[in-house]
From TrEMBL, chain B:
InterPro entries: BP-dependent_transpt_permease, MetI-like, MetI-like_sf, OppC_N. GO terms for biological process: transmembrane transport. This is Oligopeptide transport system permease protein OppC. Residues 100-290 form the ABC transmembrane type-1 domain. Keywords: Cell membrane, Membrane, Transmembrane, Transmembrane helix, Transport. The chain crosses the membrane at residues 40-61, 106-132, 139-157, 232-250, 270-290. SUPFAM superfamilies: MetI-like. It comes from Microbacterium azadirachtae. Pfam families: BPD_transp_1, OppC_N. PANTHER family: D,D-DIPEPTIDE TRANSPORT SYSTEM PERMEASE PROTEIN DDPC-RELATED (PTHR43386:SF1), OLIGOPEPTIDE TRANSPORT SYSTEM PERMEASE PROTEIN APPC (PTHR43386). One of its GO terms (cellular component) is plasma membrane. The lineage of its organism: Bacteria, Bacillati, Actinomycetota, Actinomycetes, Micrococcales.
From TrEMBL, chain C:
SUPFAM superfamilies: MetI-like (SSF161098). The gene is dppB_5. Residues 95-301 form the ABC transmembrane type-1 domain. Its main location: membrane. The chain crosses the membrane at residues 9-30, 99-122, 134-162, 182-200, 238-262, 282-306. It comes from the Bacteria. It is a multi-pass membrane protein. GO terms for cellular component: plasma membrane. The lineage of its organism: Bacteria, Bacillati, Actinomycetota, Actinomycetes, Micrococcales. Belongs to the binding-protein-dependent transport system permease family. It holds the Pfam family BPD_transp_1. This is Dipeptide transport system permease protein DppB. The keyword Cell membrane applies. The keyword Cytoplasm does not apply. GO terms for molecular function: dipeptide transmembrane transporter activity.
Automatic annotation (TrEMBL), chain D:
It is found in: Cell membrane. It comes from the Bacteria. This is Glutathione import ATP-binding protein GsiA. InterPro entries: AAA+_ATPase (IPR003593), ABC_Ni/Peptide_Import (IPR050388), ABC_transporter-like_ATP-bd (IPR003439), ABC_transporter-like_CS (IPR017871), Oligopep_ABC_C (IPR013563), P-loop_NTPase (IPR027417).
Length: 587, 301, 316, 685
């Protein structure tokens, strides 16, 4: 198997060729990510993945791969802030719904009202929600049909607020603010009505058989509307929305999203040439050259705002793990055992298709940590061993033990008893395969200095449900670390949800006053540098261990062309087929 | 998958039950008869070969199966690695030996567990007869009707697989077939005249069970055990393929095979075919031996 | 006949009730608080409790079991929260495809296995018989997914005759409309079944061949073809009927593997995906239906056998 | 019409080569019946099958010729052979249950030969089949046509088989043990039927059997086979009257018959038949022959003789046949008529529930035994005879407290032993022992003979292990076996040896009562006599009270002092053996006796009227009144309404019949004693 040289795949060919009218694009969806919902604000109990991302209903601001709002595809122009940042004025651009009605300020107010109704019913109903924060304490008013004014109780860092507005899907108030089919249009500003509307719309969305036929869902503001949906697999087809006036030639006659159950199945389809656009599992990175020969473009890059943490459970008391892991030197020693360059090079893990990453903000971020590319705790087993010895541990391949209990600087630390061993469980996701491989490598490295890491393989879903301290506190002592794959942040990649003491995504009960302060500053302060400071601090304190970030491998037929950034967007699942076109007539 | 063996499966006892007990089993005579059966010789040689390979192999060909070797991952067969390396840089040949130990152990443990449980349950039901037998066998019907693989998958998804739990789970479901088999055997033995003769002489149940019933079902039990081992190994393989196998540091042929399957299109054949061959050989060996054994025992009826 | 039928049905019903109890107990052992599973980690404890109360999951176990049975009787198999759909609807969408695949696989297997088994029995211990038995042993010892993968490697990659993926069309009739795409799944299913059936048919036929009525038929001057077709075939197939009935769980499991390897959207794949999603309502409904099918299969097989072989009702 | 010369067949199975028949010469004229007799494995069936061209796979005709109507059959083209089979040569097989296709209607099976040979079209063939069924004596043939084989009784099935063989009106019929599995009553009917049809259709018949009585009555000529050779052939009369071959003689001497002197021991042939795989240079019978000389062992005797009576023996029996080797049995010690009954049976009832319900919601039951009473005195042997299914075994099992009676009781020395829990039974358990029919099934295959014989002693805690072994050796000695057998397993013994072990085991605990259920019916003639002699000797020596169960009247006659005749769960006649056999009082007894074929061609053929006709009615709902009335030539209205009770027709000879064949006397021995006993025990209880 040839080793992959990633530099060859880091560029996207410029838009080229002559556009041919028509053609159907078939997009392969990542296994396990098939949608089951259509209403853009799915309740938690639907476990919803929404059809077509934002191709049918656009968000107020639409982000590019780099997280910045795209001026062309957003529904409004850049917001303007008052001096105290608490009043935000947003001007709507001229856009219209598929039924001809304009997209208005009222629609934005309606959308926010529905979002509020959703989180009022359950905090779990919006993934970006932290109780007490957006949309709580945010009042939206429409001034005329094209100006929205947001009044905030508490000022947010403008970059952070904009990242949230990038998640605000705008839905049609004129057609959807009803509580029964064919019922009267209600005043959505009344929270009781909003709640009834929300209940009605989620109810309508629970009947999958009617997704493509329910007239409600045909009112869209994005470039496409739903043509058909296959409930058993989650495959679906989109038809162009003729009323869409955004950028792009909009020449494709149809866009098919096809569900798959395994990476192998997708690979087979590339071989057969039946998929136009999709991703390639990294276990096939050695096959890139083959695919190119078969007429595919391949682009590989790490996804922005992504980090790959080995999540630590600070509350696990099994074997005194909580006391041991509370020691910063211990986490540093463990990070020294993570061989990021080795994993990247290894054929068995990334086969070259990954990059070193030591920060929560991800690679190439606009808010980089101040240590730049240099690892704070690079792979160095010797250093790890030295750290342990220096803190009173007797390093022994057969089992390292604490020799000097106590809280002195050369002692093991508070609460660690004499003779204490370091032994814990690492739950490793059963797919993709590189996750298991890197965890094994880590465990094997730890064993060499007498740390016993038991790797157990679990399905992703199982871990999502059972291995989170906020959600399943009863299971706290079952896992000490878990590797569930990436942590993907919003375009303003603060670790607010993940590492804030009471963040809703704080899976491992990490709690640090300095970190809390830094996060507070990056969320609510106005300092553009606050986020850099936050990520620097986190990278040094190690709330998690950092693993390399794999490159996403994007594959598309070379007969398909379009602006390079529309392909780059695929790294973050941002699809823009309306800007794509075929350069050859399709069969 | 589990109940599908052409002849061992429980249907055998349902349909073509010719459950008369075997004639004496002077072990020597059986061994002599087996030695004359080409099937038995082939089966036994495969098994001996694989057992030697798995348990004695590591002595002749020691490899490091604990330390992940990132640099040497996924090497094709060549110098230093006669069968290449796996994604973690483990020597595949050495890993096959390790996996063989675990596979054989699980298979045997599961089969022993299933056979013991099944024998006791079947014997009790067969001896009790009447309503007790009816209830006990309906319970077996119920469990048999629930697709085994689904059961195991649901459980395996929930609990981490270790060799011990895996054997218990597999054994915990495959005893049903043995139970039916043994019950049928006991039922037919119970009315056999030599058992009645013993009763006539005043023998108690205990004596009848231990001196007449058990020795006479022994052959059936041994044959059943052989098939159970084979089936258990196949089940582990299927579980592994569906993603519910064992994980580092232990491994078994099924898990090896299934983790290799990811690489089938990537051309890393050495991750699949050797492990596949091992499974095929061990199951084939066990089935050949079991069938030969049954033939020999049948012939002495 | 009638009393035999009633007795068989009664026993089947008992077993069905047993199955529903076992499955219900499993459901509770696996997830005692469905609310948490449904609402996810972020939901508050209060919300979880409310969900459980609304859906009756806080009631006494027996009451819940009664509810469960009543639901089942109304054809309500529960709702998959993960797929946001009624399980019965999901099954309705998938069952056809799986059924057509299984049945075609089964029919092909039987069409091959019955003549093959009889041929082997008639030509016992000849090269043909030995070869067929040898292949059967070999295939039987090969895990079915490996059979599938080897077929892909051979017939799709080495000699690209058939696609490696099954047809993705949603029509249940793809087996007929798109036989090329369904060739490999069908071959896999057929192969794994033929192995079992033919060996079984062989020993059943051997047993019948030893019966005097075969001799009698020959003594009547019947040519070999008539002996086999008119006398042997029917009698030698009777055990196979029972086998097919009993093998339903195995057939379902076979589908699981085949559908997964060939990415064929049927019940097996649904089950597998649900397994990875931990979607218990789907898993348990599938298990329940599998159990019910097994009971039904056994019952049907017994009745067919009782019709084909009138001795049965007397001997029970 | 059929000429077989020097026929030899070889069967190869794996590395073993078996020669089932060697150098067989045989002639058969049109319209003639040739009986072939011989022990099991002597090659009778193989001879039949080679004529049919249907030898098992792996067999070859190594030499000789089979000429049928001038045509050579050996090595005939299979196609031509097929045209012959079923049309010109037909065969009836022994086992009627597996010889009919279980899933095809009887009518279709009978009609099939006509269709196969293109002799008729379907509707015509079915019509002929129906006629044929009527001809073989099947009542209401049009209804039976649509039945499946399992719906017919054994006798009916055998008739169907015959209909099937005869429908194409063949020239030659080979009947291979056509009646072995049937009761004597039905056997007689079937054989008669075959004879009649043979006349009607003018065909020749080969009747294969191991029963000398059958050939004596039904064959024109007889061939005796031994170990693959036809050792003696001749016209029936000549063969029986002036037997030449030593084997034939021995065979005839070892058969118990209804006519022989009971005070003489049966002759038994020592040893067992040779392995067909072994080649012996001389006469194959030599090792077992008392008259064998050196020449017999080295030189094969040629067939010689005249007048169609040929034999292969160096030292033939000369002159009129005399009973030479029979020993007189020690005189039966007289059973004092006044002796207290040791075993008593009072109103014993056994009903087996079967599936289904009778009207009025009661469980349907098989009335296996219905209110049977009798007594057996010390040292006395009671024989029980009756057709298959009349409840003999059910009764026997209750006698040894193996099954609980539905009602009534069994008493041993006045104390109740039936329906008693094992603990209460205590030591009396050991006093009731049984000998089983199937010697193979009755011995634990996993135990050595030593262990088997020691087991009863071990269970009862008798003696030390060494003493037990000693006792086992003594037991073996008493059944005529040496101690070397102790370490062997049952399958390493011959059937006769096994049956003797069964007897030894039953005697191990010194029982008072021994029940023997069909002790010899699974054994071949030559071995049978050994076991019978032994049983009789033991009964006398030990003063056992025994009950011997058999459907073979000759066996019962040989072994028992008194005999009870059972019919459908009832004892219809009981009395001293000689009395009952000489002066049967019940029409059923008379019919049974008349049906027994006697190995003497000059024995008078029984009058047709005495025959028991038809078949046993279902024990599920037996006929009202006298149960025998449906088959009784003398039955009247009375028999249907009033059930006859046992009444005396002589001293100790009772019959339950309204119209007994012997005049009734005033005494009512059996019933009276039983009644008196009952009041007595009731009083003491
Ligand atoms: N298929 C076979 N293969 C090998 N040996 C056989 C086969 N069939 C019969 N024999 C042997 O051939 C010999 C003659 O058998 P045959 O059936 O003719 O005996 P028989 O006189 O009809 O006995 P029976 O009274 O038991 O029917 C026996 O020793 C038997 O074991
Ligand atoms: N366990 C049982 N259940 C039901 N019916 C039975 C049972 N045992 C015997 N019978 C029936 O009772 C009747 C008498 O049977 P039994 O075995 O006593 O007859 P038998 O005279 O010994 O016959 P054979 O000569 O065939 O041995 C038969 O009709 C038989 O079918
Ligand atoms: Mg014969
Ligand atoms: Mg009997």
């Amino acid at each position: 198997a040839a080793k992959v040289d990633p530099s060859q795949y880091r560029t996207i060919p410029a838009a080229s060729g002559k556009s041919v009218d028509g053609g159907v694009v078939t997009i392969a969806m990542t296994p396990g990510l098939a949608p089951n919902y259509i209403f853009p604000y799915p309740p938690a109990e639907a476990n919803g993945a929404v059809i077509g991302n934002d191709l049918m209903w656009r968000t107020l601001y639409r982000a590019d791969a780099d997280g910045k709002s795209n001026a062309d595809t957003s529904l409004a122009t850049a917001p303007s802030y008052s001096d105290d940042d608490r009043t935000v004025t947003i001007s709507m651009k001229k856009n219209s719904w598929s039924n001809g009605k304009p997209v208005t300020a009222g629609d934005v107010v309606f959308s926010l009202g529905i979002l509020k109704a959703a989180v009022a019913q359950s905090a779990a109903n919006w993934a970006f929600y932290t109780p007490g924060q957006f949309p709580d304490g945010v009042t939206a008013t429409a001034q005329g049909s094209d100006t929205v004014v947001l009044t905030l109780e508490k000022a947010y860092n403008p970059a952070y607020l904009e990242s949230l507005l990038q998640q605000l899907v705008v839905i049609p108030s004129a057609d959807w603010s009803i509580a029964t089919t064919g019922g009267p249009v209600l005043d959505y500003t009344d929270p009781a009505n909003a709640s009834a509307i929300y209940t009605f719309l989620t109810g309508q969305s629970s009947d999958q058989a009617t997704f493509a036929t329910n007239p409600l869902w045909q009112v869209v503001n994005g470039p496409y509307s739903l043509k058909s949906f296959e409930p058993t697999t989650g495959s679906f087809s989109l038809a162009p929305n003729k009323a869409y006036a955004g950028p792009g030639k909009h020449t494709l006659t149809q866009v098919d999203f096809k569900a798959f159950t395994s990476a192998a199945a997708i690979y087979n389809q590339y071989q057969a040439g039946t998929i136009t656009v999709g991703r390639l599992d990294s276990s096939y990175s050695a096959k890139i050259e083959d695919l190119r020969k078969k007429g595919y473009n391949v682009y590989a890059a790490p996804a922005p705002a992504r980090s790959d943490p080995l999540v630590i459970n600070f509350a696990n008391t099994t074997g005194g793990f909580d006391k041991i892991i509370a020691q910063p030197y211990m986490r540093q020693a463990l990070q020294h055992l993570v061989d990021q360059p080795g994993y990247i090079k290894s054929r068995g893990v990334y086969n070259g298709a990954a990059s070193e990453n030591y920060a929560t903000v991800g690679l190439g971020s606009a808010f980089p940590p101040d240590f730049g590319d240099k690892a704070p705790y690079p792979f160095d087993p010797k250093a790890a061993e030295k750290l342990l010895t220096a803190h009173g541990w007797k390093v022994d391949k057969a089992g390292t033990t604490c020799e000097k209990p106590g809280s002195g600087s050369d002692q093991c630390g508070e609460g660690i008893a004499q003779g204490q061993k370091i032994s814990f469980t690492l739950a490793s996701a059963s797919s993709p395969s590189y996750v298991g491989a890197r965890d094994l490598a880590f465990s094997s490295e730890a064993k060499k200095i007498g740390i016993d890491v038991k790797v157990v393989s679990k399905s992703l879903n199982y871990m999502y449900e059972n291995y989170t301290n906020p959600g399943a506190p009863a299971n706290t002592n079952e896992w000490a670390m878990q590797d569930t794959g990436p942590l993907v942040m919003t375009s303003y990649p603060t670790a607010n949800g993940a590492f804030n003491t009471d963040g809703s995504f704080n899976l491992g009960s990490y709690s640090d006053t300095a970190a809390d302060k830094a996060i507070e500053a990056s969320v609510f302060g106005s300092d553009p540098k606050a986020l850099s400071a936050e990520t620097t601090l986190l990278s040094k304190d190690l709330p998690v261990l950092f693993l390399p970030t794999p490159d996403n491998l994007i594959v598309w037929k070379s007969a398909l062309s379009g602006p390079p950034d529309t392909f780059e967007g695929l790294l973050k699942f941002i699809y823009s087929p309306e800007q794509w076109y075929f350069t050859e007539k399709q069969k | 998958m589990t109940t599908a063996h052409p002849e061992m499966s429980e249907k055998t006892d349902v349909i073509v039950q010719t459950a008369t007990a075997a004639r004496p089993l002077a072990a020597g005579a059986v061994l002599r008869a087996l030695r004359r059966s080409p099937m038995a010789v082939a089966g036994a040689s495969m098994l001996v070969l694989l057992v030697l390979f798995s348990f004695a192999g590591p002595l002749l060909y020691p490899t490091n199966q604990t330390d992940v070797n990132l640099l040497d991952a996924l090497l094709p067969p060549g110098e230093g690695y006669p069968l290449g390396t796996d994604p973690n840089g483990f020597d595949v040949l050495g890993r096959l030996m390790l996996g063989g130990q675990v596979s054989l152990e699980i298979g045997l443990l599961a089969a022993v567990f299933a056979t013991t449980l099944g024998t006791v349950y079947g014997a009790v039901a067969g001896l009790a007869g009447g309503v007790v037998d009816g209830i006990m066998m309906r319970f077996v019907d119920v469990l048999l009707a629930i697709p085994f693989l689904f059961f195991v998958l649901i459980i395996a998804a929930r609990f981490t697989a270790t060799p011990l739990t895996l054997s218990l789970v597999i054994g915990g479901f495959s005893w049903l077939v043995s139970a039916r088999l043994i019950r049928g055997e006991v039922l037919s033995l119970r009315v056999r005249e030599f058992v009645q003769a013993a009763r006539l002489m005043g023998a108690r149940d205990r004596r009848i069970i231990f001196t007449h019933l058990i020795p006479n079902t022994f052959g059936v039990i041994i044959v059943n055990l052989t098939f159970q081992v084979a089936d258990a190994i196949l089940v582990i393989a299927a579980l592994g393929f569906l993603g519910f196998g064992l994980s580092y540091p232990v491994t078994d042929w099924g898990s090896q095979l299934s983790s290799g399957v990811v690489y089938i299109t990537a051309g890393n054949w050495w991750l699949i075919y050797p492990a596949g061959l091992c499974i095929v050989l061990v199951v084939l060996g066990l089935n050949l031996l079991g069938d030969a054994l049954r033939d020999v025992l049948d012939r002495r009826r | 006949m009638i009393s035999y039928l009633l007795r068989r049905i009664l026993i089947s019903l008992l077993v069905l009730i047993g199955i529903s109890i076992v499955i219900f107990v499993m459901l509770h052992l696996i997830s005692d608080s469905p609310g948490r599973v449904v609402l996810g980690p972020q939901a508050s404890a209060a919300a979880v409790e409310a969900f459980n109360r609304e859906n009756g999951f806080d009631r006494p176990l027996f009451a819940q079991y009664v509810d469960y049975v009543v639901q089942l009787l109304h054809g309500d198999l529960g709702r998959s929260y993960k797929l946001n759909e009624e399980v019965s609807v999901l099954f309705a969408q998938n069952a056809g495809r799986s059924a057509v695949l299984s049945l075609s696989g089964l029919v092909i297997a039987l069409l091959i296995a019955i003549p093959l088994g009889i041929l082997q029995a008639v030509r016992r211990n000849t090269v043909v018989d030995r070869a067929a038995t040898g292949i059967a042993y070999l295939l039987y010892a090969t895990p079915s997914f490996l059979v599938a993968l080897l077929l892909i490697a051979l017939l799709s990659q080495l000699v690209p005759l058939f696609p490696a993926e099954a047809s993705q069309s949603t029509s249940p009739w793809v087996v007929f409309t798109d036989p090329r795409a369904m060739a490999l799944p069908l071959i896999t299913l057929a192969l794994t079944n033929v192995v079992v059936f033919s060996q079984y048919q062989r020993s059943a036929a051997l047993e019948q061949l030893g019966m005097d009525y075969i001799k009698v038929a020959r003594a009547k001057g019947a040519p070999e073809r008539v002996v086999l077709m008119r006398h042997l075939l029917r009698n030698a197939c009777i055990p196979l009927i029972t086998l097919v009935g009993v093998m339903i769980p195995t057939l379902l499991a076979g589908n699981l593997i085949v559908e997964s390897v060939f990415n064929y959207p049927g019940l097996g794949l649904l089950f597998l995906n649900s397994l990875h999603r931990e979607d218990y309502p789907v898993l348990l409904a599938y298990t329940l239906i599998g159990g019910a099918l097994t009971v039904l299969g056994n019952l049907l097989a017994d009745l067919v056998v009782a019709r084909a072989d009138r001795r049965i009702e007397l001997s029970r | 019409m059929l000429t077989i010369r020097d026929l030899s067949v070889e069967i190869r199975t794996g590395e073993r080569t078996v020669r089932p028949i060697t150098g067989v010469d045989l002639d058969l004229a049109r319209g003639e019946t040739l009986g072939i007799v011989g022990e099991t494995g002597s090659g009778k069936s193989m001879t039949g099958l080679s004529i049919m061209g249907m030898l098992p796979s792996g067999s070859t005709i190594t030499s000789g010729s089979i000429r049928f109507d001038g045509e050579e059959l050996a090595g005939m083209d299979p196609h031509a052979y097929r045209a012959l089979r079923g049309r010109r040569i037909s065969m009836v097989f022994q086992d009627s249950l597996t010889a009919l296709n279980p899933t095809q209607r009887v009518g279709d099976q009978v009609a099939e030969p006509l269709l196969l040979h293109g002799l008729a079209r379907r509707s015509e063939a079915l019509r002929r089949a129906e006629e044929m069924l009527a001809l073989v004596g099947i009542p209401r043939p049009s209804e039976r046509m649509r039945d499946y084989p399992h719906q017919l009784s054994g006798g009916m099935r055998q008739r169907v088989m015959i209909a099937m063989a005869l429908i194409a009106e063949p020239d030659l019929l080979i009947a291979d043990e056509p009646t072995t599995a049937l009761d004597v009553t039905i056997q007689a009917e079937i054989l008669e039927l075959l004879g009649r049809l043979k006349e009607q259709l003018g065909m020749a018949m080969i009747l294969v059997t191991h029963d000398m009585g059958v050939v004596a009555r039904h064959a024109d000529r007889v061939g005796v086979m031994y170990a693959g050779r036809l050792v003696e052939t001749g016209p029936t009369r000549s063969l029986f009257r002036s037997t030449r071959h030593r084997y034939t003689r021995a065979l005839l001497d070892s058969i118990p018959s209804l006519a022989q002197d009971r005070g003489l021991e049966l002759f038994s042939i020592p040893g067992s038949p040779p392995d067909p795989a072994e080649m012996v240079p001389g006469c194959r019978f030599a090792p077992r022959c008392a008259a064998a000389t050196e020449r017999c062992r080295t030189e094969r005797p040629p067939l010689e003789g005249d007048g169609g009576h040929v034999f292969a023996c160096w030292n033939p029996v000369m002159g009129a046949t005399a009973v030479a080797q029979r020993r007189a049995l020690p005189l039966a010690h007289a059973v004092p008529a006044s002796a207290e009954p040791r075993l008593e049976v009072v109103d014993l009832v056994q009903e087996h529930p079967v599936s289904g319900w009778a009207p009025k919601g009661r469980r349907r039951t098989v009335k296996a035994v219905s209110r049977v009473s009798f007594a057996v005195r010390a040292g006395e042997t009671l024989g029980l005879v009756g057709e298959s299914g009349c409840g003999k075994s059910s009764l026997g099992r209750m006698l040894v407290a193996m099954d609980r009676p539905t009602a009534g009781e069994v008493r041993l020395e006045g104390a109740k032993v039936s329906g008693v829990r094992r603990r209460e039974l205590g030591a009396r358990r050991a006093k009731l022992q049984m000998m089983f029919q199937d010697s193979g099934a009755a011995l634990d295959p996993k135990m050595t003979i030593g262990t088997i014989l020691r087991e009863p002693l071990a269970i009862q805690g008798v003696g030390t292990p060494a003493e037990r072994t000693e006792r086992a050796i003594a037991l073996l000695d008493s059944v005529g076996l040496g101690p070397s057998i102790l370490e062997r397993y049952p399958h390493e013994l011959s059937g006769g040896q096994r049956q003797r072990i069964g007897l030894a085991r039953a005697l191990a605990l010194d029982p008072d009562v021994l029940v023997a259920d069909e002790p010899v019916s699974a054994l071949d003639v030559s071995i049978r006599s050994q076991v019978l002699n032994l049983m009789r000797a033991q009964q006398r020596e030990r003063g056992l009270s025994s009950v011997v169960i058999s459907h073979d009247l000759a066996v019962i006659r040989y072994l028992s002092d008194r005999v009870g005749v059972m019919y459908l769960g009832k004892i219809v006649e009981v009395g001293a053996t000689d009395d009952v056999y000489e002066r049967p009082a019940h029409p059923y007894t008379a019919g049974l006796l008349a049906a027994v074929p006697i190995a003497d061609p000059d024995a008078p053929a029984p009058a047709g009227a005495e025959r028991v006709r038809g078949e046993l009615p279902s024990p599920l709902d037996p006929p009202s009144g006298c149960r025998f009335r449906t088959r009784c030539p003398l039955a009247t209205e009375l028999c249907a309404t009033v059930e006859p009770t046992l009444e005396a027709v002589g001293t100790g000879h009772d019959v339950a019949c309204h119209f007994p064949l012997q005049p009734k006397t005033a005494e009512k021995v059996g019933v009276q004693t039983a009644d008196a006993d009952r009041t007595e025990t009731e009083a003491t209880a």
